[in-house]
Amino acid sequence: MILLSIALLQAAAAGGGDPLAPARSDQVQCYGPDATRRECVSIGAYHRSPDGGVLNEAIVLITPDPRIIMTTVAPVQVKDGAICGAMQPAHLAASTFTVADAPATPEQTAALRQELAKAMQPLFGKEICTSITTTPDGASIGQARVDGVRQPAMDQPVIWVPKAAGWKIRTN
Fold first, then answer.
1. Domain of 76?
2. Is position 171 within any domain?
3. Is residue 170 a part of any domain in this protein?
4. Does residue 74 contact residue 85 with C-beta atoms inside 8 Å?
5. pLDDT digits (tens, 9 = 90+) for 12-38
6. Which of 28, 142, 156, 165 is most deeply packed, by most CB within 10 A?
7. In the prediction, which pLDDT does 143 show?
8. Cα–Cα distance between 41 and 24 in angstroms, integer?
9. CA-to-CA distance for 83 and 129, rounded, in angstroms?
10. 119 belongs to a structural domain
């Protein structure tokens, strides 16, 4: 569930530049990419909020079977070349879900929120920052920090992809 939490706060920093520049060019982040199938474990998009801040919309595969996908929105900010945010219970309470590619029923939604709240409790309110680094073989990795402490177990492969290119959440 810790990997889920970092996925919910999808974030990246492009080496030394503006980490949100690709988002302003109609790109989204694909975590756990499968380039052959054009699939991601999670997709992060960034939008301006009405107050001028930045919102991260994360679409996350919770389980592959049954296929459960959560969509959540949380504010983020750029700090020291990384995208940072803190997931709050209110963000989870506003999340939406699909189960087997259909909108979750109210009962399913309530149960999912309850289970995820238990799993995510240790990270609620903690600042999670992610920056993209490039490995020696050229792969991009989202490196995570929680309250300033590096968390290598939360690192994930990530790429920016054009929003219109048809990438979707993994099917299996």
1. 2-165
2. no
3. no
4. yes
5. 333 457 899 999 999 999 999 999 999
6. 142
7. 95
8. 22
9. 5
10. yes
